[in-house]
Amino acid sequence: MGIKKRISIFIFVLNGIALTNAQEVLTVQDAVKIALENNFQIKTARNELKIDELGTTPGQAGMLPQVGANLADNNSIQSLTQVRNDGTVQDRDNVKNSSFNYGVALEWTVFDGLRMFANYEQLKETKKLGEAELKQAILTTVGEVMITYYDLVQQQQQLSALDSTLIISEQRVELAQNRFTIGKASKLEVLNAQVDLNTDQTLMQRQQELYKNTKTQLNEQLARDLKIDFRVIPEIFVDQKLILDELEAKVAEENPQLQAEKINKRISELELKQIKAARYPSIFVTSGYNIGNSKSELGFATSSDSKGFSYGFGATLNLFDGFNQNRNEKMGKVALENAEIAIAQQEQALTSLVNTTYQTYLTNISLMELEERNEAIAKENLEITVEKYRIGIIPTIEFRTAQLNYINASVRLSNAKFQAKLSEIVLKQLAGNLEI
Predict the structure, then answer these.
(1) Which ranges of the sequence are coiled-coil (predicted)?
(2) Has residue 44 been placed in a domain?
(3) HEC profile for 357-414?
(4) Cβ atoms within 10 Å of 222's Cβ, excluding its own
């Protein structure tokens, strides 16, 4: 059997063993699902949103009345001397006095220049901001998980290429040794073949180390046991149908960072409304029900009981506060202007990033197609070179060159696919429509 055929069979068997391995097959969809359930950043963002939701109530905005209960029990023991109008004198020691009062009281601000309504709208906008921040946390985490996942795919492909070249290098050492034994090759040819084999084994070990470390990194992103072993799918599929105009439209509508800036502008508008509300009077009503009892061993009345309702209203109006109102309104307008600037800045930054990333995306797709052709050529060249080396009509340096060309072409192809996928992920992440 020829060396070329033996190598092909060995690679086929090796790939078959890998496919039937008992390791967990982790798809990118599975990885994303696990990340959405376990990732610490997403959990924190969800809890922050819950806090915002719990705080979005009319009561938190100051629109509802405040009702409180009160209770007071006071006692005293005194020595007193009293001189009355008729000239009589009372002199008593250890006189006991006591009073006991309890009840409920209500206070309700019924008008505050509409500040409470602006505050309630601000709480709603804060909740929307929390939703945008949660979406951003999810997109960021999912993007990181996908990038790490496809990095593993390309590393797995490089390991496969290194496996192939190791087999060829081992066969080359065997052939060189056989040729030396029968006197058709020098000892130098054997040594060169062994050195090249050792080099390939070193590259394999380095690549295996990187592969294992990247697995640990992905497990960390998934917030699960770092020692869980798994394997990923063998190929990277790139969406080659992205259109720049559609991406830009999606960014304007869906990008959570841009949405957050727009929400911040709305919050600045509502804060300015609350500042302006201080120019109007604040009107409040009060009511309550109280029960009281008092006792005294000295005086015209030795005991007293009371109970009943109380009610009233009041108003306050700031007439002069050292021009602070004017200053606060001016600062609020400047803050609103800054919010508008932040939106324009974010829009420009996102548009720039989408355009540059899209150009990189197109370049990567073109390179991916080019490297596919290069790998096919390098593979064919290697097969021809192996056969020529077997029959002894080419030098070892030409054999090694063809071998290195093949492995380099395979690595460049896997890297080109990864870079194209990376550009796709970033573009969809910016557009806010990353598949989740």
Answers:
(1) 336-387
(2) no
(3) HHHHHHHHHHHHHHHHHHHHHHHHHHHHHHHHHHCCCCCHHHHHHHHHHHHHHHHHHH
(4) 25
Structure tokens, 364? 């990567």
Domain assignment present for residue 48? The answer is no
CA distance 332 to 276: 9
Closest CA relative to residue 421, chosen from 232, 165, 209: 232
Do the domain assignments include residue 424?
yes
Identify whether residues 30 and 95 lie together within a single domain.
no
3-state SS class at 348: helix
Measure the CA dihedral 48/53/54/55, to 10°: 90
Query: Same domain for 258 and 145?
Result: yes
Three-state secondary structure call for residue 60: coil
Cα separation, 284 vs 245, whole angstroms: 56
Dist CA 419 CA 365 (whole Å) = 9
CA distance 207 to 108: 71
Q: Where are the beta strands (DSSP E) in 59-159?
A: 66-83, 89-111
**Cα of 40 vs its chain's centroid, Å:** 9
- Token look-up 């573009």 returns 427
∠ CA 236-238-240 to the nearest 5 degrees? Answer: 160
Out of 267, 290, 316, pick the residue that ends a domain: 316
**Count of beta carbons in the 10 Å neighbourhood of residue 145:** 21
Q: How far apart are CA 335 and CA 378, in angstroms?
A: 62
- Residue 181 neighbours by CB under 8 Å, 6+ apart: none
Q: How far apart are CA 287 and CA 291, in angstroms?
A: 14
From first to last of its 436 residues, the chain has per-residue pLDDT tens of: 444 444 444 444 344 444 444 567 899 999 999 999 999 999 999 999 999 999 999 999 999 999 999 999 998 888 777 777 777 777 777 878 888 999 999 999 999 999 999 999 999 999 999 999 999 999 999 999 999 999 999 999 989 888 888 888 888 888 888 888 888 778 888 898 899 889 989 999 999 999 999 999 999 999 999 999 999 999 999 999 999 999 999 999 999 999 999 999 999 999 999 999 999 999 999 999 999 888 876 666 678 888 999 999 999 999 999 999 999 999 999 999 999 999 999 999 999 999 999 999 999 999 999 999 999 999 999 889 888 877 878 887 888 888 888 888 988 999 999 999 999 999 999 999 887 6
